[in-house]
Amino acid sequence: MKALAARLAPLGVALVVRPIAPGDEAAFPDPTEPLERRRASGAARLAARAALASLGGPAGAALPRSPGRYPLWPEGFVGSLAHDDQTAAAAVARRADVAALGVDVEPAAPLPDDVAEIALFGAERADPARGRLIFAAKEAVYKAINPLDGSALEYEDIAVDLASNQARLRDGRALRLAWSEGERLIVVALFGAR
Asked: N or C: at which end does the chain have fewer Cβ atoms within 10 angstroms?
């Protein structure tokens, strides 16, 4: 994941990945959420604050949740949060460098058949070993585009081409993809990057 962060840095993107730990729930004190969800969301917000600070942003940013359930970023910044049951990630950039940004974290395990059936199309189904990576890319693309313009994308609206490091939307827009593989898959989608 350090290599991914190093590849993203020249694009103006700070990526912070951290394990979820007891006590992280204090960073997301939402009593309507179960403890495990608060803990994971808190870990992601701690990662986001570290990423913001590395870019000269406010390290103590509250990052409240919007009505659309994505975080509200400080003025001049864009970003995205993600977590699974063990790992949290945040990708943050200055809006002057990147128009929209999404991140997803997935375990490096085969994509369940029922999820592949609804999420993968055409050539995306040709390599089942890459199914989870393609799925994570689509999730990252959604997290970038929906907060940008409210597009309610479906999986079939996003075509992922790992060979070209790109995702293309049905409306023709293209996003750059970067990822790391290991015990966890981390995928970052960038739109309007310099």
From this structure: C
pLDDT of 69 reads: 87
Tell me which residues of the chain have a pLDDT lower than 70.
none
For 67, the domain range is 2-191
- Retrieve residue 156's tokens: 């079939």
H, E, C per residue of 19-86: ECCCCHHHHCCCCCCCHHHHHHHHHHHHHHHHHHHHCCCCCCCCCCECCCCCECCCCCEEEEEEECCC
Amino acid 193: pLDDT: 78
Write down the residue that tokens 């059936």 correspond to: 117
How many domains, the chain? 1
Q: How far apart are CA 168 and CA 176, in angstroms?
A: 9
